[in-house]
C-alpha cells in the first residue's frame, strides 16, 4: 500500500484559528499568512484587534507595509485608510469613496491571550472557539506566548500530535521514557475530535516529575491523553499520581501533578504551519526559575518535532508519497485525518475523499 502526499486538500475554513499572541498586535501592523491568505492584524484606536486582507484594493500593496493612523490602517503607498470592517474611511485628496474601496475583514476575538480570526464565510460560530479548562482559575499557572513556525503541512502536525508512540524515540533527550514503549494506546472518538490515551503503571517518577512534586521514593502511575479537537487544537492531558492511588477525578487533580498542554495549529500555507503553544500546570505555580526551565524544555521538545516534521515534508515532496506502509499506531492519526476530510467535504458540499488509498 502507498498513500499519496497531497498538498492540495485544502483547509477547514469554518473555524477560529489562532492568528497571533495579543502582545504581537500593537502599534505596528503585523503581516501573517493564514490558510494561505495574506492577513494583516492591527489595533483600532479603541484598542480592539482587527484583521484584514493584507492587500490594498487600489494597487494591491500589502497594507501591512502601512501604519495605524487616521482611525484605521493607512496604506503605505497612497494613504487610503481602512477601518476594522474593511471599508475605506478616507482617501487623501478626494471626498468620495468608491464602493469598491474595501477589503475582506475577518471576524476577530481575543481570548486566552491570543487573537483568533474566523476564516469561514458565514457567521462566526462561537461554539467552535476552543474552551480551556483551568485557564484563569486559581491553582493553575499559565505559560503562554509559545510559538514556532513549522515548515510542514498541518496534516503532518496532526499525525504527530495524535501519536503518543513517537515520544519514546524522537524525544529520548527530553520527555521520552523507555518505560512507555510497550504500553498500548486506546482511542475514543467524539463529534469533533478524538483521544488516544494510556496509563503507564507503576514506573519510577521521571526526573521532571520529581522536580515538580514530592513523590518520595515510591513509583507513579501516569495517564497521558492525546486529545485532538479538530481541526486545529491539540490538548495533551497528563496526570501523574502515586502508584496504586484511586483514579478519581479529585485524585487526578490533587493527588499528584496535572498538566494541560495545548497546541493551536494554524495552517500558514499548504507546506507550513503556525504552531502556537500554551501550557497549564497545577504545581510550582509561582516558581519563575522552575518555569524558565520548563519553557526551555518544551521549546526543545517541540523543536525536535519541528525538525522531524520538516524532514518528513521534504520526503513527501521528493516522493509524492505520504507513507508506504501502515502499522498499528497509525490508527488514531488516520481517524483524525478522515475526520478532517469529512469536515472539508461538508464545507464544500462534495463527498469526502478517503484519507488513505
Ligand atoms: S496601493 Fe494602497 S492606496 Fe494605493
Ligand atoms: Fe513530539
**Beta-strand content bin:** 25-35%
Q: Note the gap between the termini.
A: 8 Å
Would you report the number of β strands?
20
User: Hetero groups bound?
Assistant: FE2/S2 (inorganic) cluster, fe (ii) ion
Could you tell me the radius of gyration in angstroms?
22 Å
Keywords: 2Fe-2S, Dioxygenase, Iron, Iron-sulfur, Metal-binding, Oxidoreductase
Protein name: Aromatic ring-hydroxylating dioxygenase subunit alpha
GO molecular function, one term: dioxygenase activity
Domain Rieske: 16-117
Please name the defining characteristics of this protein.
globular; 20 strands; four-stranded antiparallel sheet; seven-stranded antiparallel sheet; alpha+beta; binds fe (ii) ion; binds FE2/S2 (inorganic) cluster; Naphthalene 1,2-dioxygenase Alpha Subunit, Chain A, domain 1; Rieske Iron-sulfur Protein; 357 residues; 2 domains
Amino acid at each position: 500500500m502507498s498513500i499519496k502526499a497531497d498538498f492540495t486538500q485544502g483547509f477547514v475554513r469554518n473555524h477560529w484559528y489562532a492568528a497571533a499572541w495579543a502582545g504581537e498586535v500593537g502599534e505596528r501592523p503585523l503581516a501573517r499568512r493564514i490558510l494561505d491568505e495574506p492577513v494583516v492584524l492591527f489595533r483600532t484606536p479603541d484598542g480592539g484587534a482587527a484583521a484584514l486582507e493584507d492587500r490594498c484594493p487600489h494597487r494591491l500593496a500589502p497594507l501591512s507595509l502601512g501604519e495605524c493612523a487616521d482611525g484605521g490602517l493607512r496604506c503605505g503607498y497612497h494613504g487610503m485608510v481602512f477601518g476594522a470592517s474593511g471599508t475605506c474611511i478616507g482617501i487623501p485628496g478626494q471626498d468620495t469613496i468608491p464602493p469598491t474601496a474595501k477589503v475582506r475583514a475577518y471576524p476577530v476575538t481575543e481570548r486566552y491571550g491570543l487573537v483568533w480570526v474566523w476564516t469561514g464565510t458565514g457567521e462566526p460560530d462561537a461554539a467552535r472557539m476552543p474552551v480551556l479548562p483551568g485557564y484563569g482559575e486559581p491553582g493553575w499557572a499559565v505559560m503562554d506566548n509559545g510559538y514556532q513556525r513549522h515548515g510542514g503541512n498541518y496534516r503532518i502536525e496532526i499525525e504527530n500530535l495524535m501519536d503518543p508512540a513517537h515520544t519514546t524515540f524522537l524525544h529520548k533527550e527530553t520527555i521520552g521514557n523507555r518505560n512507555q514503549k510497550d504500553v498500548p494506546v486506546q482511542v475514543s472518538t467524539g463529534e469533533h475530535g478524538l483521544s488516544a490515551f494510556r496509563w503507564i503503571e507503576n514506573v519510577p517518577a521521571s526526573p521532571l516529575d520529581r522536580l515538580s512534586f514530592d513523590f518520595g521514593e515510591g513509583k507513579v502511575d501516569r495517564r497521558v491523553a492525546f486529545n485532538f479537537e479538530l481541526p486545529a487544537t491539540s490538548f495533551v492531558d497528563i496526570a501523574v499520581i502515586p502508584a496504586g492511588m484511586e483514579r478519581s477525578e479529585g485524585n487526578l487533580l490533587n493527588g499528584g501533578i496535572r498538566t494541560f498542554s495545548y497546541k493551536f495549529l494554524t495552517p500558514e500555507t499548504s507546506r507550513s504551519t503556525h504552531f502556537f503553544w500554551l501550557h497549564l500546570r497545577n504545581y510550582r505555580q509561582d516558581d519563575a526559575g522552575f518555569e524558565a526551565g520548563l519553557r526551555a524544555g518544551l521549546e526543545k521538545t517541540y523543536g525536535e518535532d519541528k525538525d522531524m516534521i520538516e524532514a518528513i515534508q521534504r520526503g513527501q515532496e521528493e516522493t509524492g508519497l505520504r507513507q508506504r506502509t501502515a502499522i498499528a499506531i497509525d490508527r488514531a492519526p488516520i481517524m483524525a485525518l478522515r475526520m478532517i476530510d469529512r469536515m472539508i467535504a461538508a464545507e464544500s458540499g462534495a463527498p469526502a475523499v478517503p484519507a488513505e488509498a
